[in-house]
């Protein structure tokens, strides 16, 4: 546990302006989304609020807040996904909305780029193999007579899934491949594929005569190696390949990729099938009649759309004669309702009568259920309607399964028997965060493809047991890709009948990062909603969702997991537990102890430096720390679940840091689905961060060094003395003031306050202080045994006056 930074922060903000009283209920902000396909102007919008209390109020109202908060001269800037109706409702409540960051129109360019990339992939896969054209194949000598190999090869398959491997001999007459093997990097410029190459020339011992380049798509070519008589080159840095992503990917693509990786590298990886299948990318087929007025009602199929619900039709007809009774007829899957008429031939069947008649008709009731629209009483005369096909409204292509999804993680490590320290990297709990799964995938690719030739990567894979779950929420992510890009939740509809009409289809689902059992909404913590149409809906019960259960199962099934990273977007945050508080009195979950807090801080330096190394992105100090300290309360989040129930040291990334605009001299937010050029950069830099987390875990696994500590006298006055402790690394310190031997039940050194370092202890008489420290890896200072009191502990007399 590393020594933390003491960074006291004081923000003096104006009080919350007078708003309508009393505080409106959650329903005051309509949570409905329009049917998928229209989306009706849903956008990501800036909101300026005066202080944290206003942010908490938005949370309590069920507003769909992004994981973003920034101090401004006027208070705080937060971002929310809002329909026009929701935006107006907030304005009516006195909230200051400042314009749109992005809306559905911004998605079109990403989708077009993705379609182009998929077309390239399909074309490459349709060919027997890709064509490889060798541009250069040379060896040369540098200072000290060290030889190097340089190869450049262009592939006809230009997508990032094409991986080229080079092998070379040890000179004329030697066996092919006897000199070595290396993976090439894909070089792009201005977004265009150029060729594959080594990032730097490879050091070799003997001049080779031939190289063979092989593609994972089946292409192969062997050429002569020429001696290059160019200028001497500097010795290359260790070869390392990266950048295996060239488009946003849906969960099916991502899952296929990790399955392929496990098959390609069976000695150091395998697939773990998580036990709880999701509900599936599926919906009941529905149709609504009578608009949204007094005569409105809707029908829902009894089976999912793809199971036959989409084949059902429904019609409401005027029989054209007087005194006709209301009747329901069914022919196969065609339902026809003949409305009742009075003596003058006018329709007199009410909507409620129609709903009751459909549900009472045995043939019709086996196909559909009819329901009144929201709060309608059904007293109005029923509408007529031509034959209308029910539809589930889902727009994903046929290759996207509608069945429950088998979520998969890839396990990477040389020794996957539970003997190594485990690390759990998981992404896309929230469906609309498209950068996060490609971040996890890039990390997995780097680990596997660099293992054979990069010493640092090999050490990580040999030293750790790594679990990578790129897509935690596959159903919601499919829905975000193909139906409603702002979808945050999964697709499980827990709403009662009056919330089940088609107009609310984009408002169903559970926020998975509010569905866990620690600091939950059920426990009274803030930052989640009980409304089934809220984007922060916590679900009907803790751990109700299969996706959340899968995470918990993995950490219990593999108790060697000691570290975790939950990757979200956007805003550029680096956070850790506790993640929730009760709004009344801001009652936090218990803060982590002093040693663990310092460990979080020390690790943050290493991890964020790695993020910065990619393109210079610096995560702000104000966006680094425990979740509530830098963002807001998130009741029932997964990091708290893993830390408080299993002791797993877990962090939260929010990828997508604000970008500095040198013209406006302002930081500008990037949103959930930035243009892929930006999303790609975010994935690369935060994959750097994930690799750094693995390095932190490896250092933990190999840590056998004992901490050292000292007592530091701070001050003395009339009849008192104040002291504290200094520790050379992140460690917990236990002490006694009564002369007794310290043990693990002795008083533990605490934090003085948020980011304020160690507490100060005051005594009013000469006092013998006995203590020892123990670091996160369990190493005890001076090899002292706190259980028996054997060995040496530290001791010092603090004198008063």
TrEMBL record:
Keywords: Carboxypeptidase, Hydrolase, Metal-binding, Metalloprotease, Protease, Signal, Zinc. GO terms for biological process: proteolysis. Its EC number is 3.4.17.18. Pfam families: CHB_HEX_C_1 (PF13290), Peptidase_M14 (PF00246). It catalyses: Releases a C-terminal residue, which may be hydrophobic or positively charged. The keyword Signal applies. InterPro entries: GH29D-like_dom, Peptidase_M14. SUPFAM superfamilies: Zn-dependent exopeptidases. Residues 1-20 form the signal peptide. Its cofactor is Zn(2+). It is an enzyme of class 3 (hydrolase). SMART domains: Zn_pept. The keyword Hydrolase applies. It comes from the Bacteria. PROSITE patterns: PEPTIDASE_M14. One of its GO terms (cellular component) is extracellular space. Residues 372-697 form the Peptidase M14 domain. PANTHER family: PROTEASE FAMILY M14 CARBOXYPEPTIDASE A,B, SLL0236 PROTEIN. Belongs to the peptidase M14 family. Carboxypeptidase that possesses the specificities of both mammalian Cpase A and B. Thus shows broad substrate specificity, being able to cleave Cbz-Gly-Leu, Cbz-Gly-Val, Cbz-Gly-Phe, Cbz-Gly-Lys and Bz-Gly-Arg in vitro. This is Zinc carboxypeptidase. It comes from Herbidospora galbida.
